[in-house]
Specification:
By secondary structure, the chain is an alpha/beta fold. The protein is 40% helix and 13% strand. It folds into 2 domains: 146 residues, Glucose-6-phosphate isomerase like protein, domain 1 (Rossmann fold), CATH 3.40.50; 160 residues, Glucose-6-phosphate isomerase like protein, domain 1 (Rossmann fold). Strand 8, helix 11 and strand 9 form a beta-alpha-beta unit. The protein starts with a helix and ends with a helix.
Amino acid sequence: MLDDLKLINQIDKSDALGVAGKQASQLVHDYDVYFQLDKTPLNVVLGGMGGSAWPAMILSSWPRVSVPFEISRDYTVPSYVNKDTLYIASSYSGNTEETIASLDDAEKKGAQIVVMAAGGKLVELAKERGHTLFKIPSGFQPRMSSFYFLAALVQILEPLGLIPVASREQLAAASQWLAQENMQWFADVPTSKNPAKQLAEKLVGKSVLIYSGPLLFPATNKWKICINENAKNLAWANQYPELSHNEFIGWSSHPIEKPYAVIEIQSDLEHPRVQKRFELTDKLLSGKRPHAIAVVPEGTSVLKQILWAFNFGDYVSLYLAVLNNVDPTPVGLVEKLKKELK
């Protein structure tokens, strides 16, 4: 089925697979925005939801912000936000009600503000209120524009000295490498040679749990987002060592015949004790849960492994959408919820 290109095109009406194949180029997008802040921030808060917040999770693994950094998924900002805070309002549509409300809250608290959006109310507010605007290219679903957001974040934080110098250069080098890696997952690569198609076939009819260590968790969370939104297939994510203290025991009281698939993104860059937990968990839960499917990211750096795992997960979710016979691009139920909220 996944080698029938005509069928794939019939289901994937907006060519999400084609978009996935070009995502690496988003990493080198130049926003050509020059801005100055009144003072160097002592902390950074990013307000956003879903695919508009996810890219900021990468910053905890690479290149790591040198001051306290928090992602706020709420209608308000943390209580400590003040004039020493850089607040980044992030919404692809520009109409996310939580982000608009938290922007108002950040303004009341005197924060220094930067806006990232493709359009909508946030772009209007940025222009009206004089906030620096990084305008994300439009025409995509938020989850398919993540690397545009990552490029913007690097171009915001590097000039401020809040992430290491040359982070943007590292991103550009990784972009070229990732573009080559993508080719092995293209739709015209047959299932027998395409690991993304092979993994998608193992997930059909199952709810998916994706686990990793902290370094790769940004990619793990993106897998959850894309399996839910692209494949319209339930998925959850968690990370070691935290899951060893709670979710681990939840598997213990039921037989192995569960309608789940377990994926573990196993990076050799994680803490050695985290790597040990992968091995021991599978051993101790043998017969209690499905045997974990190991995904070992390519790349010699944290950045490359996150980007590789990110894009591989995109392709897996898109092929799973085809197998589920659903168009991966629309998220009609989310749009319906937004209308109901209004």
